[in-house]
Write a structure and sequence with these properties.
heterodimer, A: mainly alpha, 2 domains, two-stranded antiparallel sheet, 2 strands, 2% strand, B: mainly alpha, 8 helices, 74% helix, 0% strand, rod-shaped
Chain lengths: 220, 202
């Protein structure tokens, strides 16, 4: 058993080992578990939101309505994710003959690619099915949300799930089933992205179905 | 231990993408840019892209075709490179100093190649035996590569289907847009259908 003096010394030492304290240190430590960042969709990266918006604007056209613009955003984000994955494959492909782990990692990237392609396919179909506006009353324009050439993606997307959010109970309007991961951040409210709400709802339904199946199995 | 691929900053990545929607051609060391461009030109001629979306799908098809070729090449090279171990294993009961001979054989030393072939012939074997032994050793890796080739082939087919679907959607949207314009024409009410008698008079 440790003496009181030793316990006190441990306690004193522990006070100096409580992790990073500055904002920069915390930001750095937050990236400790990051391997390649390819699993995080570009749409969830606030730093990329404006650029995605600009690309989506080019794709959808200057007078596109909000729905078409949102579909274009999802499409652009998925395309960027896909290009990142394909770029990450190249150094691994060069090393396959000399590095046995490269093939395993390529297999993992292949899985990521499959997921991203699926996401892009859905986005492209949605984008293709939305008719571009042909009249002034064809849809909600987003021209007022632009600041110069920069497009405030958050402001545009915030308008989208408004109807959907109105149908939800009050306590669920500002959170999703993913909890802290999608917690609203200062400056860019990611929970307002239509795609995230849709996705979280879909995931919740799937989880509920799975748990019901499991319960039924257990009861048998 | 290999280091993970270094990701550039988010803004840089988007800036790169801004220049080219479908990205730069993904080529590795030793691959021919000209060959890639020719393949892209051929596929583009065949499918005739009409807008940026179709460009993206076509680049996808070309990338996937290129990927399939590349993976097949990698599989063949993997078996060739790893054949040295199989040679060692196969000829060890047949010759002395099989390790040294296998090393020289893999360096394509003419004397070593003829010695190995002679030893295999004496034992009633051939290079097929060596390749079978190599495949047995590398079956897991070969299966992984085969799976990736199969996935790429499926994706190539899916990309072609997407072009088809996109074009069908585009046509449908255009049809609807034209109908919308027709319906909202303010002068449409002024046009009175002519009676058969009036038509005859005209």
């Amino acid at each position: 058993m440790s003496s009181l003096r030793k316990l006190y010394a441990n306690w004193l030492n522990a006070r100096f080992s409580t992790g990073p304290r500055t904002a920069a240190g915390k930001a750095r430590a937050a990236q400790n578990a990051r391997k390649h960042g390819l699993r995080v969709p570009a749409l969830r990266d606030p730093a990329m939101a404006k650029n995605i918006g600009a690309l989506a604007r080019k794709l959808a056209g200057p007078n596109a309505d909000a729905q078409r613009f949102a579909a274009a955003c999802r499409l652009v984000a998925a395309q960027i994710d896909l290009l990142d994955i394909r770029e990450a494959r190249l150094p691994l492909l060069s090393r396959v003959l000399v590095d046995d782990t490269a093939l395993d990692r390529l297999t993992t990237l292949d899985l990521y690619e499959r997921i991203t392609r699926s996401r892009r396919k859905s986005a492209a179909r949605e984008f293709g099915s939305i008719c571009p506006s042909v009249a002034a009353d064809g849809g909600q324009t987003v021209g007022n949300d632009t600041r110069g050439n920069e497009i405030d993606l958050a402001a545009v997307l915030r308008k989208l799930p408004a109807e959907k959010a109105a149908r939800l109970p009050r306590e669920r309007r500002n959170r999703t089933s993913r909890g802290a991961y999608l917690r609203p951040r200062r400056g860019l409210d990611v929970t307002d992205f239509g795609i995230l709400n849709e996705r979280s709802q879909r995931g919740k339904t799937q989880r509920k179905q799975r748990s019901n199946v499991n319960k039924a199995r257990r009861s048998k | 231990m290999t280091s993970p691929p270094v990701a550039t900053s988010a803004t840089d990545r988007t800036e790169v993408r801004r220049r080219n929607w479908a990205g730069e051609p993904g080529l590795i060391l030793g691959e021919d840019r000209q060959g890639y461009d020719e393949l892209l030109a051929q596929v583009s001629r065949a499918l005739a892209p009409r807008n940026v979306m179709e460009d993206v799908w076509i680049r996808d098809v070309v990338d996937l075709v290129w990927d399939i070729f590349r993976l097949r090449r990698i599989k063949a090279n993997l078996l060739r490179v790893r054949a040295r171990n199989a040679i060692r294993e196969v000829i060890s009961p047949l010759v002395r100093d099989s390790w040294d001979l296998a090393d020289k054989w893999s360096a394509r030393d003419a004397n070593a190649v003829s010695l190995v072939e002679a030893a295999l012939k004496r034992a009633g074997m051939s290079m097929d035996t060596v390749m079978a032994a190599t495949l047995r050793e590398e079956i897991d890796h070969v299966a992984q590569i085969e799976a990736m080739i199969a996935h790429a082939e499926v994706r190539r087919g899916a990309a072609l289907r997407e072009i088809e679907r996109y074009r069908a959607n585009l046509a449908e949207n255009l049809r609807r847009a034209i109908a919308h314009v027709d319906n909202s024409d303010p002068h449409a009410a002024d046009i009175v259908p002519q009676s058969p008698a009036e038509q005859e008079a005209v």
